[in-house]
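User: I'm curious whether this sequence folds into something compact or stays loose and floppy. Could you predict its structure so I can see for myself?
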Amino acid sequence: MTGKGQGFGFGLGKMKELAEAFKKAQQVQEGAKRLQEELEQMEIQGESGGGLIKVIVSGNQEPKRVEISPEALGEGAEVLSDLVTVAMKDAYNKSTATMRERMEDLTSGLELPGF
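Assistant: Here's the prediction. I'll summarize afterward.
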């Protein structure tokens, strides 16, 4: 019989690699849970009209509030609507960029396939 100590073709070295991979995966999972909680608490502000309209969302793009300055009210419904839309897009873009950055920080240094 050749190759003694090989078991099922799964040597001790492979077991250590596997254990290490599980440990890393668990760390990522815990980090992701913390990150999710962090993102929920965040307030990211988008604005338009030089600050006339401010839209605040969480790091998960959950709308929190809209702030409309008194000066913006005099612009009329159509302009006001456009300003709110632009501020919403700004907040959304900042929020998704923040989420992406945080996810990259979380997974950096890990050699996980597909990340």
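Summary: The domain at 15-107 is CATH 3.30.1310.10 (Ybab; Chain: A;). The chain has one domain: 15-107.
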